[in-house]
Amino acid sequence: MDAGRKRSNPSESHREISTETVYPRGVAGAVKAVASESKTLTRKTPGATWLRRAGLAALGALGSLTVLLGVASIPLSGLLIRPRLKRMAQLKSGHLRALIKRVGIALEDVAITSFDGTKLCGWWMATAKDSPTVVVLHGVKKNRTDVLRTSLALRQAGLNVLVLDGRAHGGSEGRYVTYGFYETRDVESAVEWLIGAKGVAGDSIGLAGESMGAAIALQVAALDNRIKAVWADSPFASLERVTSEFLHKVTHIPGPMLGPVLWTAIQVANYRGKFDVKTVNPLSLAREIKCAVYLVHGTADQLISANHSEKIYEALAGAKDLWMVDGAQHARAIRRERREYVERITGFFKARLSKTDRVQL
User: Fold this and answer.
1) Which CATH architecture has domain 88-238+280-360?
2) What is the pTM of this model?
């Protein structure tokens, strides 16, 4: 043994590990010795043990939260962009077609190819090429049959009507719903089809929508000057806001905890749907709308509060009206006040799509 090499002294209160300490069995012995020293130090410092346990607990909680957010976000994002469709039986009903035919209105089944190749299905109800034309848009989960009351009223008033199934709805193609991110261009494709294939007057086209369809109509009007009038029944002001309100109702998650869940669900929806929820915002576009807008909202709407329409109305810079229908639930004003609803919507489009009326405005 080399007399110049020091051995560690077991009697020392602090057994320092030094490069001069002699360990048995080479490297393996050194590793065991270091582990032994670590255990000794841990035993002598209870605070270190507590901190280690607290750290592990925090890491476990964070991991559990991450897993929970991931598990919850997938179905919640599905509710947003792949909702369960309704009224599919009505769409295929021969009885419904017979009823429409009985009131003297001919339906033409049409298929329109959108900007990205998606096929959009709908019904074309024509009067005359030089008559004003209204494109009618339904709400989420629904299809063209849900806005048939409005469509028939407009057609009986002498207007050309195109009622469409939105992408991923009814008979139309598409996998995900994006509430206007892609649907605005779908509607623009429909407008181009109306002008090119049906020869309608390109300066007498209006949009009528309910719920999601109303929000889409507002977004299109802000981007496309060919739209001369918009009837928006129960629109949302912001997709992010209405999603937050909806998730709060269906999950009952407290506000502080809802934030991370909402953020995660939106990120998953963005990824799956290849769009950006934050950009679907009719309120932010309202000031860009140059045509006349007629907003309608029920005071008893529990799905999209009337405040959404009030905010849009305040932001609009052009000709505008706001009709608050007392006691009407979501997109049900036409059922609550049918006669007045029909009078208002037909009168609005006849006035606003009249060329002489627009010159005076």
Assistant:
1) 3-Layer(aba) Sandwich (3.40)
2) 0.80
